[in-house]
Write a structure and sequence with these properties.
14 helices, 9-stranded mixed sheet, alpha/beta
């Protein structure tokens, strides 16, 4: 046998061994995740097949619901938060119906929520911001009252959703953009794709996929779990409140910041047909996000960036953004966990206004 053939065989064997090790690692992570979820929910893994059928039924319902939503958007509705008027709307964007809340006047501030949340995450900071800014808080694709397609949960697609929405509103020229959790993925893609349309960018408590600090993923067992097809939907069906409540309480410095009524509000959306699936799809898009972000990172963001992290969770966001932008500053939010807008709205309002006015 030729030496070159031997080398090729050795390389092939090494690659196969590496792939097997990666698969074993992923398998172990999923097993650990499933076991953890079983403990959280207090349920038996043997109910999996029964819930899989339920999840499949929900998917068919969501398909019909999404088709219906596109034709019949929900009715516009005005309401008040702390005596400041906001209103609910929907708009056809990028093949979906996107729900958003808007209020105030002045330069636009766009708030992109995280998982497992909706626009409601921003309720404590919206009234103060609306005194000097036009506040736009959408429900991201698939979440809240936005329609729930089967695909398009990567950062580039969700950023296009937001761009089309703001274009319809005439607010796409220069915006202040704020993203939290999975909203960070959309915010970064938006800023990288439309750098001339973003005056300043704020990143809250989550690093950008593809630019995680070393060891970041080791802390997050649910990443692998949520990326697993069908299993998360099956195990959490009918127990959405128990599952989501674990995240609200575990990653809060002050668990009382998100009340039982607040949890009811979030769960009312995620427990609808396809609600949990849509949330998991954001995690399943992580590998796509990583590839997209590595391409976008060839040109560093030109706008000023503020990265904040909770005292309880640390500031991986700041470490990540230093690789992606020219002008980055950041700090730790004292007495806060992951849910900064709800745990320390006073601090966040102060930091946002100061940053926007600089």
């Amino acid at each position: 046998m030729k030496k070159s053939n031997i080398v090729i065989m050795e390389l092939t064997t090494k690659n196969q061994a590496k792939l097997i090790d990666q698969n074993k690692s992923l398998y172990r992570k999923v097993i650990v995740a499933v076991a953890t979820v079983t403990i959280i929910l207090g349920s038996s893994p043997f109910i999996l097949l029964q819930h899989q059928s339920t999840a499949q039924d929900q998917q068919q319902t969501v398909f019909n619901q999404t088709t219906f939503d596109v034709k019949k958007p929900i009715k516009d509705l005005s309401f008040e938060i702390d005596n400041v008027t906001f209103s609910h709307h929907t708009a056809p964007v990028n093949g979906i119906q996107m729900h958003y809340v808007i209020g105030g006047q002045g330069d636009p501030v766009v708030l992109l929520h995280g998982w497992p949340q909706t626009w409601y995450e921003w309720r404590h900071i919206m009234p103060e911001l609306a005194k000097n800014y036009t506040v736009v808080a959408p429900d991201l694709r698939g979440l809240g009252d936005s329609s729930k397609p089967f695909s398009g949960y990567d950062g580039n697609t969700t950023a296009e959703d937001i761009y089309q929405l703001l274009s319809q509103l005439g607010l796409d020229q220069k915006i202040f953009l704020v993203g939290h959790d999975i909203g960070v993925h959309t915010a970064y893609s938006y800023a990288a794709t439309h750098p001339n349309n973003v005056s300043k960018l704020v990143i809250l408590d989550v690093p950008v996929p593809g630019f995680y600090p070393q060891g970041f993923e080791d802390c997050c067992w649910w990443f692998s779990f949520h990326q697993t097809p069908d299993i998360p939907e099956a195990l959490t069906a009918g127990k959405e409140r128990e599952y989501l409540s674990w995240f609200y309480t575990t990653f809060a410095y002050n668990p009382e910041a998100i009340t039982e009524a607040d949890i009811d509000e979030y769960v009312s959306h995620y427990s609808k047909p396809g609600g949990m699936r849509a949330g998991f799809e954001y995690y399943r898009a992580f590998p796509i996000d990583e590839e997209q972000n590595k391409e976008l990172a060839d040109i560093k963001l030109p706008m000023p960036v503020l990265a904040l992290g909770g005292e309880y969770t640390g500031n991986a966001a700041l470490t990540s953004m230093k690789s992606l932008a020219i002008d980055v500053r950041g700090s730790i939010v004292p007495f806060s966990g992951h849910w900064i807008a709800e745990e320390r709205p006073d601090f966040l309002i102060k930091e946002l206004v100061k940053f926007f006015r600089e």
